[in-house]
Structure formats: C-alpha cells, structure tokens
Recover the amino acids of this structure.
C-alpha cells in the first residue's frame, strides 16, 4: 500500500481510468464464484432506477417526466442507438466522448447548431462538469427545434451536479455503471419522455439482452453504495490534491493541474493507505 506523503505526479494516469480497488475486484470475483439467478426484467429496472437516482451528493429533478425506461448495455449503446436511428445525422459539442471522433463526428459550437438535428450531450461533462453556456444551448435548441439527448455516464462518479431534466427539448437521458470499472459488464438505463422504436427499446422490451448482464448489475447495485466513490475516498482525494498542488473536479477519481490538464487517480486510490 502507498503512503499519500510519498506519492508523486508520476503515480497519476493521464488516461482517465476508472476506480480500481479491492472492494470492486472482490465483488467481481465473488459474483463469478457464486451461483447466480436471472433477475426479472421489471425488477431490474426498479432496482436500477432506485440506485441511479438515490444519490445524496447530486440533485436530479424532473425524472418523473420520463416514464419510458429501457435496459441498455451502457451509455455507448444509448449513443449508437440514437445515431443509428438518425443515420448518424447527430451533432455534438466540444470536449465530448472520444468515441464520436472515432466515428468521424466533429463538434459544433453554441450559436452554430444545425436546426432539427438531434444533439447528444454529456452532462455532467468529463472536462467541465457543468457545461458552460448550457442556458444558451437550451435556448438555441428551443428556437431551432432541436431534440436533446443526454449522456449521464459520469453522474455516478460526481458530486455537486444539479440538473432538471424537465425541459421540453430534452427527450431522453441515460446512466450506466461504467465509472465503477464496469467496462467488463456494461449495464444501465435509458429514460425517455415518449416511447420510441430503436435498438434500446426493442432489445429491452423483447428481453434480447444477456440475462447475466442484468443479474450482475443487480448484484453490484446491492453491494455498492450509490455515492461509494466520494464517501470512501473524499478525504484521500483532498489530501492528494494538497500534496501535489492539484485541484479536485466534480469526479472523485479525476483531478486537474493549474493548466487544466486532467489526471486519473482511479488506480492510485486503490493502492493508498486510507
């Protein structure tokens, strides 16, 4: 185990790796070792909805206006479903998920949004937290008839995020467990204002997902406290930032230097003495 007093900037990662600690590792091993039972579709949605929305460190309002809930294989599934339905005629803002650039999408800016073309935006955002000019973006979307779909993948690692989803142009949003090192078992939910026909809704309604995925997700939600990261490591994050002259972000395993360069302490948190 590492002593915080002995760490250096070289112990941090420039790739934004998620948290990796013994608790999460042991849960994974225990789940694989135990005999598992399938989780009924509606039971998983109820459990996952309660888990995602039970945060004590963030304020999420207006969720009740989105009654249609689907099981998704992580937020990338949510993005791909929207993009496919719209033949990749979607638009994004700057500082977005790197996946978009891999797919050849370039960002646009507030004031330059294309009328009628769906906007997918990450909120909270990995770089900014709360997006700058969000009020301006909302107003422009109202004026230009642009539907908004929100990728909330980072909200499970956040604190201090306050958001009201109940805006007429916001049509759907999604959350996943990926920030707890769940890249090996992507699972989440999408909430929609109205029922839509796309990959997410069809796979969920017809139960064409892998039942082990929902079984595992259900198990993890029962054993991982919703705000686990900040509650367990909040003091350590503060001490690391003080030691290395860094600044906390909205996310418990992401810190930044004076030039706004981001570092992950996800691996480090799993190795230090608390």
């Amino acid at each position: 185990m590492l002593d915080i007093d002995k760490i250096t900037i070289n112990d941090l990662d420039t790739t934004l790796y998620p948290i990796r600690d013994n608790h999460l590792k042991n849960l994974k091993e225990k789940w694989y070792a135990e005999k598992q039972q399938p989780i009924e579709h509606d039971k998983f949605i109820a459990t996952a909805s309660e888990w995602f929305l039970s945060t004590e460190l963030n304020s999420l309002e207006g969720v009740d206006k989105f009654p249609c809930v689907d099981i998704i294989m992580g937020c990338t599934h949510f993005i791909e479903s929207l993009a496919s339905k719209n033949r990749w005629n979607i638009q994004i803002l700057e500082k977005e998920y790197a996946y978009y650039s891999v797919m050849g999408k370039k960002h646009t800016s507030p004031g330059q949004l294309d009328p009628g073309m769906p906007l997918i935006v990450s909120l909270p955002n990995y770089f900014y937290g709360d997006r700058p000019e969000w009020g301006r973006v909302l107003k422009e979307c109202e004026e230009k008839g642009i539907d908004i779909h929100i990728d909330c993948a980072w909200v499970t690692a956040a604190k201090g995020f306050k958001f009201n989803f109940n805006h007429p142009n916001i049509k759907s949003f999604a959350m996943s467990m990926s920030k707890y090192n769940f890249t090996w078992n992507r699972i989440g939910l999408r909430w929609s204002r109205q029922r839509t026909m796309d990959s997410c809704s069809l796979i969920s309604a017809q139960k064409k997902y892998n039942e082990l995925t929902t079984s595992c997700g259900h198990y993890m939600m029962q054993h991982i406290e919703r705000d686990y990261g900040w509650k367990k490591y909040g003091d350590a994050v503060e001490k690391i930032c003080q030691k290395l002259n860094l600044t906390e972000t909205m996310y418990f395993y992401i810190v930044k230097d004076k030039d706004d360069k981001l570092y992950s302490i996800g691996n480090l948190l799993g190795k230090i003495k608390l």
In short: Residues 35 and 218 are 14 Å apart (CA to CA). Residues 228-244 form the longest helix (17 residues). Residues 4-27+226-269 form one domain. The chain has a mean pLDDT of 95.
